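Holo prediction. Input below; ligand is NDP.
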Amino acid sequence: MTELKKHFAVIGNPIHHSLSPQIHAAFAKETGLHIDYEAVLSPLNQFKNTIYQLIAQKLNGANVTLPFKKEAYELASQHSNHARIAEAVNTLEFKEDEIIGHNTDGIGLVRDLEQNLNVDLKSKKILLIGAGGAAEGVIYSMLEKKPSELILTNRTIEKTNAIQNKMDVHVKSFDVNLNVIEISKLPHQYFDIIINATSAGLNNAELGIDHKVFHEGSLVYDMMYGKETSFIREAQSKGSKTSDGLGMLVEQAAEAFFIWHHIKPQTKSVIESLRAL
Ligand code: NDP
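Structure of the complex:
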C-alpha cells in the first residue's frame, strides 16, 4: 500500500526568499519520506484565515516566519514548553481539533553552536544583541546550557528589561547571571560568544556597538544568513571567529521535521549544499 503524501508549508510575508522548501525537500529525499512543502504568502492582516484555509486543504503542519510568530502563538490551542516561554511559535502541528505550537529557534541555535561549530555554552560569557522575536525565542535554550553569564542588550532597552523580568524564574532555576546593559555602555571585556539577533543587517544598518567588544578567540555569530553583514566583517577584522545563521536555519528546520515525522534528518550536507549556492 502506498503511503499517503503529507502536506506542509511555510507562511510569512515576505516569503519568496525562504529556503525552507529546499531544506525540507532535502530532508524528505534523504529520509525517503513522501511529502510536499510549499511557501505561502499570507496577507499581513489575514494570517488566521490563511491557516484555516490550509487546514481545510488538509495541511499536516506549517512553519511560521516573520512577522507572524506571535499570531501563531495566539492561534495555537496547545504549546510546547519552548513556545510557551518565548510566547512565539515557528512550527505548527495540525491534529484533528488541535493546533499545537512549537518554537524550534532556540534548539536550532544551540545545535548549530554546539554540534556544527563545536562551541560549548556551559560556563561561557555570552552577549546577545536584540530583543525581537528571534532573541526571545533563543534565550531559554541558552539558559538551559548554563552559561556563566548572559548579557542582553538592544537599541530599545525597555524590551530587554521586559525579557529579563520574564526570564527571572528560569534564571533562578538554572542559576545563571542574566544582566542587561545599554548598547552604548557595553564593556570592552572579553565575551566568549557574541550573538547578533537583530535585523539591522537586512538594511545594512550599523548596530551602534563599540567594536572593541570584538576580541581574538571569541565566536561572533550573526543570525542573518545569505549576506555578509558589517557586524561580521568588523569582528573578522579583530580576529574573532565568525558564523552566519545558516546552520541555525537548517537545525531549527530539522527539529520541526522531527516534530512532524519523528525522524531526525542529517543536517551537515544540507548546510554545505546551501552554502555552496
Ligand atoms: P524582529 O523584528 O522581531 O526584531 C528586530 C530586532 O532588531 C529588534 O531587537 C530591533 O531593535 C533590532 N533592530 C532592527 N534594526 C536595528 C538597527 N538599525 N539598529 C539596532 N537594532 C536594530 O525580528 P526577529 O527578531 O524575528 O529577527 C531578527 C533577525 O534574526 C532577522 O535578521 C532574521 O532573519 C534573523 N533570524 C534568523 C533565524 C535563523 O534561523 N537563522 C531565525 C529567526 C530569525 P528595537 O527593539 O530597538 O526595534
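The first strand starts at residue 6 and ends at 12. That is the main takeaway for now.
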